[in-house]
Amino acid sequence: MFLENTVNHKEQFGWIEVICGSMFSGKTEELIRRLKRAQFAKQKVEIFKPSIDTRYHDEMVVSHDSNEIRSTPVPAAANIAILAQGCDVVGIDEAQFFDDEIVKICNDLANSGIRVIVAGLDMDFKGNPFGPMPALMATAEYVTKVHAVCTRTGNLAHYSFRKAEGDKLVLLGETDEYEPLSRAAFYQAMHPENSTAKKTKKN
Questions:
Q1: Do residues 150 and 23 touch, judged by C-beta distance below 8 A?
Q2: Each residue's pLDDT tens digit in the chain (203 positions)?
Q3: Sign of the torsion formed by the C-alpha atoms of 178, 181, 183 and 184
Q4: Residue 119 CB: number of other CB atoms within 10 A?
Q5: Is 180:153 a contact under the CB 8 Å cutoff?
Q6: DSSP state, 158?
Q7: Is the dihedral of CA 68, 69, 74, 76 positive or negative?
Q8: Which residues are catalytic?
Q9: What is d(CA 75, CA 161) in angstroms, rounded to the nearest whole number?
Q10: Cα–Cα distance for residue pair 75/83, rounded to 1 Å
Q11: Which DSSP string do the residues of 84-150 spell out, in sequence order?
């Protein structure tokens, strides 16, 4: 369970929190929850998302269950450094879509005394570490990994399997294009020939 840190005014440094997991695992929901708590405490909060993410709304960060919070869409990580000055808390959604500079930006913000909360996919549709997320997780003080429920087995899921055709790394989509899978279900989906061979051998 994640517990918010307390501000150490003597130290005058912030910190980084990373919320990661597969699609449909509640990453954005948890990001919004933490940011709204900070807003309720009258802290100055700014939220950013990549401008390419327009699935639900151009400016709002919206979770799969329609919880939302106003954000600023930015084309690159460098824009966040300029717009986040004077904030107490900075939230960043869909961090995997940003360039690698997002890692330096987040650390610079934390070093300047800002609490940085980042949410993003830790793996792409092939099961590989996604963009800058591994480096963000390595440099963060807190990492929360959330899970979805596998649509095929009912077990915990941490893979985002792409049902749609194509090899393009970035493909914005919802349940029509993606489904959360457990390790076993993901392996079977990615290697159907092996599953068929095992069944044939048993018979």
A1: no
A2: 566 666 556 668 999 999 999 999 999 899 999 999 999 999 999 999 998 765 554 555 555 454 667 788 999 999 999 999 899 999 999 999 999 999 999 999 999 999 999 999 999 999 999 999 999 999 999 999 999 999 999 999 999 998 866 666 555 545 568 899 999 999 999 998 775 545 545 54
A3: negative
A4: 30
A5: no
A6: -
A7: negative
A8: 94
A9: 26
A10: 12
A11: TTT-SEEEESSGGGS-THHHHHHHHHHHTT-EEEEEEESB-TTSSB-TTHHHHHHH-SEEEEE-EE-
Name the token pair of 105.
Answer: 């930006």
Sign of torsion, CA 122 127 130 133? positive
State the pTM of this model: 0.83
Instruction: Answer for the pair 61, 90: CB distance below 8 angstroms, yes or no.
Output: no
Neighbours of 177 (CB within 10 A): 17
